[in-house]
Every structure is written in C-alpha cells, then in structure tokens.
Design a protein that fits this description.
Number of domains: 2
Number of strands: 7
Structural class: alpha+beta
Order of helices and strands: HHHHHEEEEEEEHHHHHH
Distance between the termini: 20 Å
Strand content: 15-25%
Shape: elongated
Largest sheet: 7 strands, antiparallel
Helix content: 55-70%
Length: 355
C-alpha cells in the first residue's frame, strides 16, 4: 500500500506541478503585459516591470492553487484511468476509502506548500514589489492619499502624511486623549521612523499639552512613541486584505477588535484564505471519481477543459460571495466557506457513488 501511495502521490503531484507551471507562465505574461502602461514613468522601465510581475507570482499562485490543483488532479487521475491502473488497484482490494486517503495525502502536501507560500513569500514579495514600483515611478510617495493615513491605538490617534522608504515616513501628527475622550496633547514630528512593530521614533518633535486652564509647549530632538499601531499596522491599512498572510490578518483582526473597529473585511479574508486551502483537498477528491465509469476514457483535452471550467466557476463564485458578504453585511465566517463547501459536498457525493 505504501508503494501505491507513493505512486499515486507522484502521479498527482507531477500533474499539478505541470499545470501550475503553465498557469504561472501565463500569469507572468499577462501581468507583464498589464504593466506596459506604467513603463516609462520615472525610472520604471521594462526590467522593473518584469521584476514587479515576477514578485507578484507567489500571490497569483496562491489565488490560482485550487483551480490548478483541480485541473492537475483531473489530468493525473486521467493518466491512471487510461492505463487501467485505478481499476487494477480496486480489483486488487484497494477500497474507496483507502484510495481516497492516498489522494488526500497528496492534497495535504499541496496544502502545506500553499500555506508556506502564503505565509512567507506572497505578502512580503508583493509589498516589496509595490514599494519598488512606487519608488521607481515617484521621488516621494504617499501611500495614504492627500489626507494622510489615520490610525488609532487606544488613547493615541496618529496621522501619517507621506512615506519615503520602507520604514521612513513624512510628518506625523499625534493626538493624545484622556479617559473621557478629552484632548490632552497635540504633537507634530517632521519625520517619523518605524522603530519596530509597536513603536515609532519621532524626529524634530513639537508638542502642546493642555491642562485645566493652561497650555504648555515643548520641543524635543526625538521622541520614542510606543503604540500598538506601528508601521506594520499602517501597511495593513493601505493593503488589500485578500493579499495578506494568515498571521497578518489575525493580528489585524486583534488590533481592530481591541480598538472597537470593524474587523469584518479582515475576518472575511482570513476565512476565505483557509477555505481556499481546504479547497485544494476538495479539488483532488472531486477529481478521483472521474477515473471510473465512462469518464475514464475522456481525452486529456476534455479533462483540461472540464477542470478549467470548474476552476473558473470556483474562482468567480469565491469572489462573488466575498463581494456579497461585504455589500449585504453577511457573516464572513459562513459566507467564505460556501464555494468550498459546495465543492466538497460534490466530491463526497461523487466518491460515494464509485463502484
């Protein structure tokens, strides 16, 4: 059985790897074509556009993993079916459950690979790509728009105006509130530097502090400000939640919840991410029944077309329910699982009907 497990694993993983390689090449080409309108602005040239597209590939791979796994699994199962190896395995005593367990073993490897890409590659590379593109096209970049980025951490409210590098920002306003929300102090720093994930180093800092019947002013060369909203939280405020890793989304939800803010967009992205990972296992299980019955004689082209159609349907349904959850204020925990639950239910029904 272990020999059969390794054989099934090798067949399915090689097919999924081939499909993902094709999808990544296509994704790179389309992203590079889409960047041509930005080429020529500032120092952003063709090589920079190619580098930007390449650094966005891990995020593209993460989004397309369920569809790629489904197409690859259909091709891999088709290869086993056309050579009658699945029939031989069943005749030799391999049960449906044992065959499904072998497929799930392959799915778990793919899930772990997708999880590692999402946690360690996709988010940092995409943010680095965005920063490099912005710095190539503009001498000084504001990531927060004309009004700056506003951030609250407990009784401290921050307003950051601009950003000149990955960890250095422009002017910053600091508002300190009392327990009754009375304004205690207003400060302004000419420059702010991130001093870790939970603190700021404020340079050339001037402050006015309000007493009961007086105002005192002070000027400091620098001030170290501790705040739960550091530069990493600021980056979350200007980044699409769907592109963040699971640990970043979890930290964002904790931060928003602790400050009485709405965490639903990040909760939806968090559970959608987990649902897409589960969708990889559902996709491989869904492909297994197509190795039996009349479907086992279908050509590779037919299987690829079917997998592509189902993968696109899954992708667009996922986006549709995510948009609906935000528009109609639906529960993010429940709505994020709708496409994956439908795919898993179809996979279980089809596997139960295998003879």
């Amino acid at each position: 059985m272990r020999l059969l497990d390794r054989y099934i694993l090798r067949t399915l993983l090689s097919a999924v790897a081939l499909v993902m390689a094709v999808l990544l090449i296509l994704g790179l080409v389309f992203m590079f074509i889409g960047e041509q309108k930005a080429v020529g602005v500032g120092h952003y040239g063709t090589l920079e556009a190619l580098s930007y597209s390449a650094m966005n590939l891990p995020q593209f791979a993460l989004q397309s993993f369920p569809a790629g796994a489904l197409i690859g699994a259909l091709l891999g199962v088709g290869a086993l079916a056309r050579s009658h190896e699945l029939i031989i395995m069943r005749v030799s005593g391999m049960s449906k459950l044992r065959l499904g367990a072998s497929v799930l073993l392959s799915a778990m490897i793919l899930v772990v690979a997708a999880l590692l890409i999402g946690e360690f590659l996709a988010e940092p590379l995409e943010q680095l790509a965005d920063e490099q593109k912005a710095f190539d096209r503009n001498a000084n970049v504001s990531f927060a728009g004309a009004g700056g980025a506003w951030l609250r951490s407990g009784d401290i409210i921050l307003n950051v105006q601009g950003r000149s590098s990955a960890a250095e920002f422009g002017s910053m306003l600091v508002f300190e509130l009392g327990p009754d929300n009375r304004l205690l102090a207003v400060g302004r720093a000419q420059h702010a530097t991130a001093a870790g994930s939970n603190s700021w180093r404020l340079l050339d800092y001037a402050e006015s502090r309000f007493g009961q019947d007086s105002v005192t002013s002070a000027r400091l060369p620098q001030r170290l400000l501790s705040s739960a909203g550091g530069s990493d939280i600021l980056q979350l405020a200007i980044t699409d939640p769907n592109t963040l890793s699971l640990h970043s989304l979890y930290n964002a939800m904790l931060y928003l919840h602790s400050n009485g803010l709405d965490p639903r967009p990040y909760a939806l992205a968090f559970w959608s991410h987990i649902a897409r990972l589960t969708g990889i296992a559902a996709a491989l299980l869904f492909a297994l029944p197509f190795g039996f019955g009349s479907m086992r004689s279908v050509s590779y082209g037919g299987r690829a077309t079917l997998g592509l159609a189902l993968g696109l349907a899954y992708f667009f349904l996922q986006r549709l329910v995510e948009s609906g959850a935000q528009v109609y204020q639906l529960s993010p925990v429940l709505i994020a699982w709708v496409p994956t639950a439908l795919l898993m239910a179809a996979a279980l029904v089809l596997n139960w009907r295998i003879r």
